[in-house]
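haha ok so turns out i had the wrong file open the whole time. this is the CORRECT one, sorry everyone. sequence first:
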Amino acid sequence: MANYQHLLVAIDPNQDDQPALRRAVYLVQHNGGRIKAFLSIYDFSYEMTTLLSPDERTAMRQGVISQRAAWISEQCRHYIDAGVPIEIKVVWHNRPYEAIIQEVLAEKHDLVLKMTHQHDRLESVIFTPTDWNLLRKCPCPVWMVKDQPWPEGGKALVAVNLSSEEPYHDPLNLKLVSETLALAKNVNQTEVHLVGAYPVTPINIAIELPDFDPSVYNDAIRGQHLLAMKSLRQKFGLGEEMTHVEKGLPEEVIPDLAEHLQAGVVVLGTIGRTGISAAFIGNTTEHVIDHLKCDLLALKPDDFVCPLEAEQQEPKMPTAEPTPPSENNPVA
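then structure:
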């Protein structure tokens, strides 16, 4: 059940406005719990200060950490004064997503919230490498918060997979719907809608098989998806008007319906493919994410194993001095 009580907010170091913190405060005020305002910072120039002793470099890093912690405290002052329990933590780490996931694993956080930026011209949300790594690897749900106000009467749209091609789809569908309904009830009785997409007739089949009837094929596929959606919604007592089965690609159907419904958040499952598997097979979830214009809440299957947790359990060889990071979180 989505009774998120131990929230980690990834602070954006480059701006004073913190939409993810606001969303976390809203959840805590309605749902209870506590917040950790978390920032990972790193500047390779501090590691290259060879004229300083190790102790002096450590003191310099600690000074930067203290400075940023004071800045975050200022951002949180209004909420803390209002009685919202917020802990502030700043760490020195050259990979922000690893720092966040390590904190989640160590402190058993049950929800991560992070701001996403909106592309001014396209109105679509821009996801950074840190965002993608969190969506793929973080063991707890990840809420990507759009840097725009929550729409008036915003709804929750749950993207479900009705094809049943893989054994994990059915339990993941149940988890997505049950957690979203629980969260909606606990927070503000937000309307919850379900959406499933089914494929169009493959053009090559229609061309190669003269006797193939595309309309019969489409009707059969739609019928299968409607039956699967009916079975799913009946498990939760949802009305037919709250479910949507649409023809087309998920990356087109889901964002279009979210915009039509003025959804505040789209909830979907991600199995966390990484490496070669993600590069060659792709991930439908990630194609959907690229087209969204609203908040996103991504959940993993119950049997998901965080790759960082698996690495921690393996014996490691001694490491050398840190190498230049692939992505920095600049220090102001």
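Residues 275-282, 317-326, 328-332 have pLDDT under 50 and may be disordered.
again sry for the mixup
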